[in-house]
Amino acid sequence: VINNREMTINASIGVTAAHCLYDNQYWYTKMFFCAGFNDGNCVKNVAILKAAVVMRDDKYYYDYGLIKFDNSSNLQNKIGYLDWDNNPGNNVEVTIFGYSMNSELQCAKNGNVLCMWHGISTQIGSFRHVPVDTGSGSSGGPWIKLFDSKKKQGWLVGSVSSSGPGS
Asked: Which parts pass through the membrane (predicted)?
């Protein structure tokens, strides 16, 4: 959930991978965000009211998607929030989250348990990379700099788009 005053007043905007919202032909419908998902349980299940992706030549561009939640959901009070830094520099310490099925991450890898990795991300051209395979199921997971695990706050600098060595 993004809580950047330049983008939103009430922290009702989220970021995910565009391919989680649109498959180059159809928009997914009846989408929900399962806030705080862990081992099959949600802290709060919130309807996604609208979704948007940047398209170029009928394909999503940079694989970012924005989602708008119901304003009354108060997600930031339940799961925390992030500010957004779209120019974090070259070598940036990040914490990455996702629900991996087959990664190099040290976690259950069953798609139901939140996996985490902490290390340095690098900028190569216009893309940001990490030296681990985050695995399928991690798409849309946040890349957060200065992550405060107690407050569940930090700066969003990216989102998992693809998996593979050096993704």
From this structure: none
